[in-house]
Known about the structure:
This protein has a three-stranded mixed beta sheet, with no helix packed on it. It has 17 helices and three strands.
Amino acid sequence: MLYQLDDSELELVNGLPLYTKLLWSAVVHMVIMGVLLADPALRAHVGQLCPIDAGDGDWHGGRIAAKYIRLALRNNFQADQLSSPFISPAILQIFIWCTFAFGDQGHMAQATLTLDANPPALSNITTMIQNWVTKAKLSIQVYGSFMIEPQKIPTMLALMWEISQEIRAKADAGAVTFEEIYNMLVQKKIIVFRSGGLVTWLCACDFSEYRLCSAPTPTDLAKHLLIGERHPSGPLGGLELIEISSWQPQPTDVAELAQVFTDVMNILQNPSPALTHTSLFVSNAVRIQGYNLSIIDLEHILCKFYSEDTMRGKKYRLVMSKAAKAKAAAQTRAAAAAALAAGAGIGANDDDEDDTRDDFGDDAGGDAGADADTNVDM
């Protein structure tokens, strides 16, 4: 781990499992990156604020952080903000930006709709998006290998306009939960809105931030990660890194994982002054973004934690591979010992030996697609 809270700070919160504490530490690490990204005055001291961790060998925290910040600054973080009333065309606008134009400032500007009471000209929008296709399919590079067949775009847009009106009507009728909006997207059977899918999560989170529905809960995030049709590689990769660092199994039960998220958010949203680094950087993050850290931030931080790890290159990932293999070997020995103690014999679990494998080898993936459902063919 590039930056880790001092043991003295971790020990101030009693009763939490090591896995939860190291997740909290990783989140603070990424909050530091965000604060440095947003505050040039602090960025000048990046080497001092991100000290090297003994487990990282010769990887200098300042160099890695500076590289990460330079890459992140290439994005326009204000590009998808709307100031008009959130009428049905504004909902469609979010769908178009998130699905077809995200990561390309030129496309996002070109796809900006006239937000008034008139129905959008879907045929014109279809032609515009199809004109972005440079090869056989529309490739959205920011999501990894995410490609959409041009002939599917008209149907997608028609269904998006349909659900835009349904969401607006549901919000007008009364309070709507995040889970309801998320499920509405999945049930519409639009190919990019799958349970566990990145675009589904992003759109539902945008709608919560525009007050069309409630904010996502720890349980909403746990369900998104664990029981969806897709399995988001970015946040799950971040959780696996915590598993390796803590030598504690990642929770695979929704209630257990939701409790981990709840415990971490309780610290982040109301840090004790005694938690020196946590209080310092979380307070700066709140000052900069204007509101408390949320579950939306936690999901994004997990993605970026995994993404940043891939930037450290082959050498670091090989170190992680050795740790993963050592852990698997230890688990195999423990299982064999337990079987022997139970009278089952050492050979009882021999068939499982080949199932232990390392998920952090050279093919762990680059940072461009770490948030994404990579190799998605629409």
